[in-house]
Design a protein that fits this description.
The complex is a heterodimer of chains A (296) and B (265).
Chain A lengths: L9 E10 L2 E11 L4 E6 L5 H8 L7 E6 L2 E2 L8 E4 L11 H11 L5 H10 L13 H14 L4 E5 L7 H18 L2 E6 L2 H4 L5 E6 L2 E7 H6 L2 E6 L11 E7 L2 E6 L11 E3 L3 H10 L13
Parallel strand pairs in A: 3-8, 3-9, 6-7, 7-8
Antiparallel strand pairs in A: 1-2, 1-4, 4-5, 9-10, 11-13, 11-14, 12-13
Chain B lengths: L1 H40 L7 H4 L4 H34 L2 H5 L6 H35 L7 H4 L6 H22 L2 H33 L16 H4 L2 H29 L2
The chains are: A alpha/beta (296), B mainly alpha (265).
Chain lengths: 296, 265
Amino acid sequence: MPAEIPSAAVAAEGVGHRFGDVPALRDCTFAVPPGAVVALLGRNGAGKTTLLRAVVGLLRPYRGRIRVFGEPAGAGVLPRIGYVAQQAPLYRMLTVEQTLRLGARLNPHFDAGYARRLVDAGPLPVTARVGALAAGQRARLALAVALGKRPDLLVLDEPLASLDPVARTEFVGALMAEVADRGTTVLMSTHVVADVQDVCDHVVVLGGGQVRLAAEVEPALAAHRLAVGAERDLGALDGLETIEVRRDGGEFTALVATAAPPDAGTVTWHRPTLEELLLGYLRTGAPHPSVEVSLA
Amino acid sequence: MTWLALRLLRPYLIVAGSVAAAATAYVLHAAGVVQRQLDRAGVPDCRDPNECYPSGGALNAVLGMELVAAFVPPLLGLILGVALFAREREEDTIAFVLTQSVPRERWVLTKLGWALAAGAACAACVATAHRLAGIRYTVLANDTYELLQLLHFNNAGYMVGQTVVLIALAAVLGLVTGRTLPTLVLTVIGGPFVVMAGGGVAVLLFYPLGVLTGGTDPAADGTAGTFADDMTAMDPFAYLAGAVLGAGAVALALLARRAGSRASR
C-alpha cells in the first residue's frame, strides 16, 4: 500500500492518463521524500516522460492527483521546480549568454552567478548559439538554467542520454554538488540502469504505465533475493512472492520478494545487485502488488 | 517576457513587415498607373466604369490591387500565426518556457498579443493604402473583379480583422496540434469559414450602430445605386471594427500584465 507522506516533495495518487485510446499511465501511486535522489526507470514507452510532465504541470492527468510540496502540481509550485526536458529543448537562435539572461528574466530568484559558474565550468562558449552546441553542451546549459532557479525539486527527463562519459561524469558531479549543498530533491528518469548506480537513493520502476516498484534502494535490495536452481526445484518458490522467473537450459533464475528465503533444497539464494533487481522489475509483466515508499 | 516574445517573433515580423511594405508600395504604385491612364484620357476624376474602364497596364494594376487586398491580409495572418505556438510545441521549447516561474497565461497572452498587434499594424498599412489610394480606381473594374472583392469587401476593418482572426485561429490550432504543417493546412482550410462567421456576426452587431452614428446606409440615402457606394458602404463598420480591435489589443496587453502579477503573488 502506498505510504502517505504529508511532507513528500512529490506525491502521486492514482494517477492515470491516456493519449487517445492508448493508456500512458495507470493508477500510479508513489511518493518522493524531500532530499531524495530518485531514479524513475522504465523501458521505452513506459510512461516516464508523461509522469514527469504531469509533475511539472505540463500535462494534467485524466485521473488521480499529483502534489508537489503539498500543493497541486502546476503554476503555483513552478518557482520551486527546475525542469530539464528530454533532449534539453532550448531556443536555438539564442546564444548561451542570452539563454542565461532569459533564465534570469523568467525567474525572479534566479542565481545568475551560480548559473554562469556552471556554464563556465563546462566550459560552454557564451557567445555560441544554442543551435550550434552539441547535445551534451545543450544538456549542461539546460541544467545550469534549471539549477540557477535554485529549485527545491529538480526534475530531469533522461538527462544523461545524450552525454559522453566525461560529460556524464561532470553532469552528475554538478548534480550531486547541488544535492549536497542544498538538499535538493531530484527526480530523474532514465532507462539505463547503470545511471542509477552511485547516484540515486530511491527508485521508482514504471512498466506499462504502472508503478512496479517504488522504494529506497538499500531496503529494496534487502527485501529481495535472487534464487538460482534446477527447473525441477521451482517448487521451492511456492508461497513466495515471485517477481520474475527466467528459464535457461534446465535451470531457472528468479527474483523473489523476500528477505528471508527458505533454507531447504538445492536452490541457491543471494542478495541481488541493484541492476539485477531493477532488470527483474523492468522485465516482468505484472505490477508488483506492494508499492512501498520509505522516508529518506 | 516581451523581449523573448519579440525575439522569437523577429523573423516572422521581418517577413510580415516586408510583405506589408511591398504590398503597400505596390498599391500606391498601381494607383499611380491607373491615374496616369485617366490623366492621359483627359478624365482624371472619372469614377464611372462606363466612361473610363481601364485597359492594358491599368487594368492589370487594378487586378494587382484586388489581389493584394484579397490575399495579403490572410497571408500576414498565416505568417505570424502558424509558427506562433505550433513550432514551440514541435521543438518542445514550450516545455522550457512553461516551466519557468512566469505564469503560463502571461506567456501565451504576451506572445499572442504581440503577434496580433504586429499583424493588425501590418494589415492596417495595406488596408489603409488600399482604402485611401486604391479603391477609387478598383471601383472602375468592380464587375470584372467582383469575386475578388468578396474576399475583402473594400473594407479596411474587414481586412485587418481577417489577419487578426487568422492569427488567433492559427495560434489555437498550433497549441492544439503541436505541428506546423497541420496548423498551416487547417488554418488555410478553416480560416475562411471562421473569418466569414466572424465578419457576419460583426456586421450584424456593428453595422446598424454605424448607421445610427452617422454612417452611410446605401439603401436609405440618395446615393444608393451610385458606384461610390462600393467605396463607402462599409466604412462605419470599418471604423468601429478598427476601434474594437484596437481596444482588444490594449485589453490583451493589460490582461497579460495583470495575469502575470496576479499569478506571481
